[in-house]
């Protein structure tokens, strides 16, 4: 499944192994990717040693109810914003009891959402050392945007969870 998406299976497996060696666990809260990140991570045999679980928070109200995003934050920024990605990352880590949480939100397209153009992706990562966010601007169709979001999340996990940097 991983290679069918154009991702490097060995690189994903290596990421999980590096996280396991460091004793880290991971949880995800995904909006625009609809669980694709968790599917990629769990496609690797032995992923259960690292992956705690995930939340698909596609609808805005589920970002609050399941993802732990404060309602006031959504009212202030809307569902597509770096602060929302960070809150989702924190919510995933807390709700799933993981060391690292990843939050993904954005606009896969083809239409804008809340004034945000298609191809806008926000990746959030929560770790014991704090919160980190990155904004990506991706050209292409829905599939390209969602895959870029997954790649961005894998890169964030690698950099902030293992201190290394690999291509996925």
Plain-language structure description:
Helices cover 41% and strands 20% of the residues. The protein is of the alpha/beta class and 168 residues long. The protein has one domain: Maf protein, CATH 3.90.950.20. A five-stranded mixed sheet has the order 2-1-3-4-5. Helix 1 packs parallel to helix 6. The chain is globular. The model has no long low-confidence stretch (mean pLDDT 97).
CATH topology: Maf protein
Q: So what's the CATH class? A: Alpha Beta
Helix-residue proportion: 40-55%
Across the major sheet, the strand order is 2-1-3-4-5
Q: How many domain units?
A: 1
Write down the overall geometry: globular
Look at the structure and give the mean pLDDT.
97
Helix/sheet category: alpha/beta
Radius of gyration: 14 Å
Separation of the first and last Cα atoms: 14 Å
Largest sheet, if any?
5 strands, mixed
Topology pattern, helix = H, strand = E: HEHEHHHEEEH
Instruction: Report low-confidence residues grouped into runs of 5 or more.
Output: none
CATH H-level homologous superfamily name: CinA-like
Strand content: 15-25%
> What is the name of the CATH architecture?
Alpha-Beta Complex
Topology (SSEs and partners):
Blueprint: H1 9-21, E1 26-30, H2 36-42, E2 51-56, H3 60-65, H4 71-77, H5 82-96, E3 100-106, E4 120-127, E5 130-137, H6 142-162
Helix pairs in contact: 1-6
Question: Short summary of the structure?
Answer:
By secondary structure, this protein is an alpha/beta fold. Helix content is 41%, strand content 20%.
């Amino acid at each position: 499944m991983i290679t069918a998406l154009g991702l490097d299976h060995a690189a994903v497996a290596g990421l999980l192994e590096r996280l396991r060696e460091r004793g880290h666990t991971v949880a995800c809260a995904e909006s625009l990717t609809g669980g694709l990140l968790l599917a990629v991570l769990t496609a690797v045999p032995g992923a259960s040693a690292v992956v705690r679980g995930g939340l698909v928070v596609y609808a805005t109200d589920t970002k609050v109810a399941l993802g732990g995003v404060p309602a006031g934050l959504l009212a202030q920024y809307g569902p597509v914003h770096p602060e929302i990605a960070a809150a989702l990352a924190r919510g995933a880590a807390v709700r799933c009891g993981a060391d690292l949480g990843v939050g993904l939100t954005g606009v896969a397209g083809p239409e804008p959402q809340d004034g945000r153009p298609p191809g806008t992706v926000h990746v959030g990562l929560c770790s014991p050392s704090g919160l980190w966010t990155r904004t990506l601007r991706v050209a292409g169709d829905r599939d390209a945007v969602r895959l870029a979001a997954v790649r961005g999340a894998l890169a964030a996990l690698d950099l902030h969870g293992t201190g290394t940097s690999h291509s996925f």
